[in-house]
Specification:
The complex is a heterotrimer of chains A (74), B (306) and C (253). With 74 residues, chain A is an all-alpha fold. Chain A contains three helices and no strands. Chain A has helices at 2-36, 45-54, 58-67. In chain A, helix 1 (2-36) packs antiparallel against helix 2 (45-54), helix 1 (2-36) packs parallel to helix 3 and helix 2 packs antiparallel against helix 3 (58-67). Chain B is of the alpha/beta class and 306 residues long. In chain B, the strands form three sheets. A six-stranded mixed sheet of chain B has the order 6-7-8-3-9-10, with helices on both faces. In chain B, strands 2-1-4-5 form a four-stranded antiparallel sheet, covered by helices on one side. In chain B, strands 12-13-11-14 form a four-stranded antiparallel sheet, with helices on one face. In chain B, a hairpin with a 2-residue loop joins strand 1 and strand 2 (17-28). Chain C is mainly alpha-helical and 253 residues long. Chain C contains ten helices and no strands. In chain C, helix 6 (107-140) runs antiparallel to helix 7 (149-173). The chains are: A mainly alpha (74), B alpha/beta (306), C mainly alpha (253). Chains in contact: A-B, A-C, B-C. The B-C interface holds B 51-54, 71, 73, 76-77, 79, 81, 83, 85-89, 91-92, 96, 100-101, 103-106, 145, 149 and C 2-3, 6, 9-10, 13-14, 17-18, 94-96, 98-106, 248, 251-252.
Chain lengths: 74, 306, 253
C-alpha cells in the first residue's frame, strides 16, 4: 500500500498540489477573516471555524457569502 | 433672483394619506433654513421631492429658477444631499468614495478638491476603510460628499439626530461656517439645533407649513409669556395650580399670561397672599422654539389661561 | 454615457474587495483541476469499494470533460447565483445608490455596469477553468475521443450570459437576496421542465449546458444549438431591459 501511495503522489502531483494549495489557501483566508472579527451575520466563531475546516470549498464559500458581518474585508 | 429655492403648491399623497398639502415656501440665497416637524410631518418627503427622487402629485419646485423633474438629475448638479443615514460602500476608503462621487459629477481638479473637502470636515488624517467609521465620521463623510461638487443648495435630512451632543455641536458649527456661501435646507426635530444656526424656520405640520419666519419673529408672534412658580411641597404646588387653573409639573406651576410681566407678577403675588401660598422661586420664562412649535402644531385654538 | 465606466470601475473594486471574485476564481479553478483527476481516479475508487474482480472501462478524456461540465452546470452556476444574487438588492436595502443617483448616476448605467462586470468575471473564470482542464486532460489522457473542445465550451459561455441576466433581474426584482435566488431557481426549474418537450430541445437554453459532451465527441453539430443560443441571447436582452425598467420604477428609499 505504501508503494501505491507514493506512486499515486508521483502520478498525480501536478493536479494534487494546486488543489491542495487552493483548498488550504481558501480555508486559511476564511479562518484569518473569522479570527479578525468578533461579530458575524449569524452564528459564532466556533461554528464558523468548524464549518470552514470540515467542509472543504463549500465551508469557506458559505462563510464569505453568509457569515461575513459586512461587505468589507478589513 | 434672490430666492434659491421656491416651492409652489406642492402636494404629495401616498395612497389615501396626504403627506404634503399645498406646501409653499422660499429660501433666500445664502441663508440657512431649518425645517421642523414631528416624525411623519413630511420633512423627508419634501427633501426627496426637491431632489427629484419622488414625483409630486401637484405643484412646482424651482431651484435657481430651474424646474425640478422627477427622475431627472439636471437640477441635481446644483444640489448636495446628506441623507438621514448616509450609506457608503464600506470596502472603500473615504478618498476612494469621494473619487467615485467626483467622477460622477465631473468635478474639475478632483484630487485637490477631495483633499480640501476632507480637510474641511476633519477627515484628512483618516486612511482606513469606511467599514471602521463611527457614526460621527460617517456624518462628516456624508457632508463631504454633499459638498464635493460645490452645490448651491445643501440639503441635510436630520443631520444631527444620531450624533452625541459634542458631535452635534461640531456638525452645527460646520453647517454655520457654510453660511453665505451655500444655501442650506436642513430638517430636524431637535429644536435647539434650529435656534442655534438658522436664519429661517419652517414648522411643518400635517403636510402644511404651519409657520415660516425668522426665529425672532416667530418668537414675537407665537411666543407665550410665561412665568414659573416653584414650591417646596407638592401639596402647595397642587393648590396653586388649582387656584390659577395652570398646568404643573414636579413642584413647578407654569402660568401663561398676556400683557406686561410687571402687572402680571403683581396680580399673581396678590393672589398668592390671599390664599397664603409662598413660592420658593418665581421666574420669567422666555419663549423657546419648543413652545412655539407646540403652539403652532396644536390644531385646536390654543387655550390661553388667564 | 461617461458615468458607465465610473460605475463599472466601482463594480470591479467591489467584487475584488468583497472577495467575491476571489472565491469564484478559486472554486472554478478547483473544478478545473478536479475534473481530470476525478475521471482518472473514479475506476480505482470503485474497485477499492467493489473489489478487484469488477471489470471497469479505462477512463478517457471524455470522462474528464463530462466531470468538467457537470461541475460547472450543477455547482458552478449556483455558486454564482449565491455570490452575486444580492448585486442590486443589497444596494437597495443598504441605500448605497441614493447618494450616487442624486449625483447624476443614471439607473440604466447601474444595471449595464453590473451586467458587464458579471459577464467579464464569468468569461475570465470559465475560460481559465476551460484551458486548465484542457491542459490536464491532454496530459493525462492521450486519446483522440474529444476532437471539439472549443465548440463544446461555446454553448456554456452563451448560457452563462443568459444565466447572469436571470440573476441580475432576480436581484432587481426581489427585495432580498433570497427572493432573487428564488427567481433564479424558478427559471431553472421551468427550463428543466421544458426539457420534457422533445421538440423544443434545440430552442431550450438549458440544452446549452446539457449537450456539451455530445458536441465534444462530434456526435452533435454546434449548429444544432444555434436556435437555443438565439433564444438565450434574446432572453438576456429582454431581462436586462426589464431590469432597467424595474429599477427606474423603484423608489430609492
Amino acid at each position: 500500500m505504501d508503494l501505491n501511495e507514493t506512486q499515486f503522489l508521483i502520478d498525480y502531483w501536478p493536479t494534487l498540489l494546486p488543489v491542495a494549495i487552493l483548498e488550504v489557501g481558501l480555508m486559511l483566508v476564511a479562518l484569518k477573516h473569522i479570527f479578525q472579527h468578533t461579530r458575524y451575520r449569524f452564528g459564532n466563531r466556533v461554528m464558523w471555524v468548524v464549518i470552514v475546516v470540515v467542509f472543504q470549498i463549500i465551508g469557506p464559500v458559505a462563510y464569505f457569502t453568509w457569515g461575513k458581518g459586512t461587505t468589507s474585508d478589513e | 433672483m434672490s430666492d434659491l429655492l421656491t416651492l409652489y403648491h406642492l402636494q404629495k399623497r401616498y395612497g389615501s394619506r396626504a403627506v404634503l398639502q399645498d406646501l409653499n415656501f422660499k429660501i433666500p440665497r445664502g441663508s440657512i433654513f431649518g425645517l421642523v416637524g414631528a416624525n411623519g410631518a413630511g420633512k423627508t418627503t419634501t427633501m426627496r421631492l426637491i431632489l427629484g427622487l419622488e414625483k409630486a402629485d401637484a405643484g412646482t419646485i424651482l431651484i435657481n429658477g430651474e424646474k425640478v423633474h422627477y427622475g431627472q438629475t439636471k437640477t441635481n448638479r446644483m444640489t448636495g444631499y446628506l441623507p438621514d443615514v448616509p450609506a457608503f460602500y464600506d470596502y472603500m476608503t473615504s478618498r476612494e468614495y469621494l473619487r467615485l462621487c467626483a467622477d460622477l459629477t465631473h468635478v474639475a481638479n478632483a484630487t485637490v478638491k477631495i483633499e480640501n473637502t476632507l480637510a474641511l470636515v476633519g477627515l484628512e488624517e483618516v486612511h482606513h476603510r469606511i467599514h471602521g467609521f463611527s457614526r460621527g465620521m460617517r456624518q462628516r463623510l456624508g457632508i463631504a460628499q454633499a459638498l464635493l461638487n460645490d452645490p448651491e443648495l445643501l440639503i441635510c435630512d436630520e443631520p444631527t439626530s444620531a450624533l452625541d451632543p459634542a458631535g452635534r455641536a461640531a456638525f452645527l458649527n460646520l453647517l454655520y461656517s457654510l453660511k453665505g456661501r451655500v444655501t442650506v435646507l436642513f430638517s430636524t426635530h431637535i429644536l435647539s439645533d434650529v435656534e442655534r444656526i438658522s436664519d429661517y424656520v419652517g414648522i411643518l405640520h400635517h403636510g402644511r407649513l404651519a409657520a415660516c419666519d425668522t426665529p425672532a419673529r416667530l418668537r414675537a408672534i407665537y411666543g407665550r409669556h410665561q412665568m414659573a412658580l416653584t414650591f417646596a411641597t407638592v401639596a402647595e404646588t397642587r393648590r396653586c395650580a388649582t387656584h390659577f387653573q395652570a398646568p404643573w409639573h414636579d413642584c413647578t406651576v407654569t402660568i401663561t399670561y398676556q400683557g406686561s410681566y410687571a402687572a402680571e407678577a403683581r396680580q399673581v403675588f396678590q393672589d398668592l397672599l390671599a390664599v397664603k401660598l409662598m413660592p420658593v422661586n418665581l421666574r420669567r420664562v422666555d419663549p423657546t422654539l419648543d413652545q412655539i412649535f407646540m403652539e403652532v402644531t396644536q390644531n385646536e385654538n390654543p387655550t390661553r389661561v388667564l | 454615457m461617461r458615468t458607465l465606466p465610473v460605475f463599472f470601475k466601482k463594480e470591479l473594486l467591489e467584487t475584488w474587495r468583497t472577495r467575491r471574485f476571489g472565491v469564484l476564481a478559486v472554486v472554478f479553478l478547483l473544478f478545473a483541476l478536479m475534473s481530470p483527476l476525478a475521471a482518472k481516479l473514479t475506476p480505482d475508487l470503485l474497485r477499492l469499494s467493489l473489489g478487484t474482480a469488477v471489470k471497469l472501462p479505462t477512463p478517457t478524456s471524455v470522462d474528464s470533460w463530462t466531470q468538467f461540465y457537470k461541475n460547472i452546470s450543477q455547482m458552478g452556476i449556483y455558486i454564482i447565483a449565491i455570490l452575486f444574487g444580492g448585486t442590486v438588492s443589497r444596494e437597495l436595502t443598504d441605500k448605497t445608490l441614493v447618494n450616487l443617483v442624486t449625483k447624476g448616476l443614471p439607473r440604466w448605467a447601474v444595471i449595464i455596469a453590473k451586467y458587464l462586470c458579471l459577464l467579464g468575471q464569468w468569461l475570465v473564470v470559465v475560460a481559465s477553468a476551460f484551458f486548465i482542464t484542457w491542459g490536464y486532460t491532454t496530459f493525462y489522457f492521450s486519446d483522440r475521443q474529444s476532437p471539439h473542445p472549443i465548440a463544446a465550451c461555446l454553448p456554456l459561455l452563451v448560457f452563462g450570459a443568459f444565466f447572469l441576466a436571470v440573476v441580475l433581474f432576480g436581484s432587481t426584482w426581489g427585495r432580498h437576496t433570497y427572493e432573487g435566488l428564488l427567481f433564479t431557481c424558478l427559471v431553472m426549474a421551468i427550463l428543466f421542465l421544458a426539457k420534457l418537450l422533445k421538440q423544443a430541445h434545440n430552442f431550450n437554453p438549458v440544452s446549452l449546458i446539457g449537450d456539451n459532451v455530445a458536441i465534444l465527441q462530434g456526435n452533435l453539430s454546434l449548429t444544432k444549438l444555434f436556435p437555443a443560443m438565439g433564444v438565450a441571447l434574446g432572453l438576456t436582452l429582454i431581462l436586462i431591459v426589464s431590469s432597467v425598467a424595474l429599477l427606474n420604477k423603484k423608489a430609492l428609499v
